[in-house]
Design a protein that fits this description.
two-stranded antiparallel sheet; 5 helices
Length: 110
């Protein structure tokens, strides 16, 4: 139980740094809040012995991230938006790890 809590604390710290240094719009805030729920969802799915809770969560992250990605560039020309890169990496890691916990291998590319 300590690993999800520790992961949440370190991710929340990184998010706080991003929030304090980058202007975020509504979908970015919504996506970050959703990603922060990940450790709690793992514990809930485990406690309830219900992997579908985790799959539903991963699906909702994927849908929200897809909307985000379609409207927000991570790289524009030579400029990298660091906060968007952090959000992208976090969403990717959450989806990858969540699928792995359900014994689903995610492809590196589609």
């Amino acid at each position: 139980y300590s690993t999800p809590s520790t992961s949440k604390v370190s991710f929340v710290s990184a998010v706080e740094r991003v929030i304090n240094t980058s202007p975020l719009d509504n979908i970015e805030v919504e996506l970050i809040k959703k990603i922060i729920e990940y450790p709690d969802i793992i514990l809930k799915a485990s406690k309830n012995d219900n992997p579908s809770e985790l799959i539903n969560f991963i699906t909702s992250i994927a849908q929200l991230y897809n909307s985000y990605y379609n409207s927000h560039r991570v790289i524009e020309g030579n400029h990298i938006f660091n906060h968007r890169l952090l959000i992208t990496k976090a969403a990717s890691k959450v989806m990858e790890n969540g699928l792995r916990l359900c014994h689903i291998v995610s492809p590196e590319r589609i």
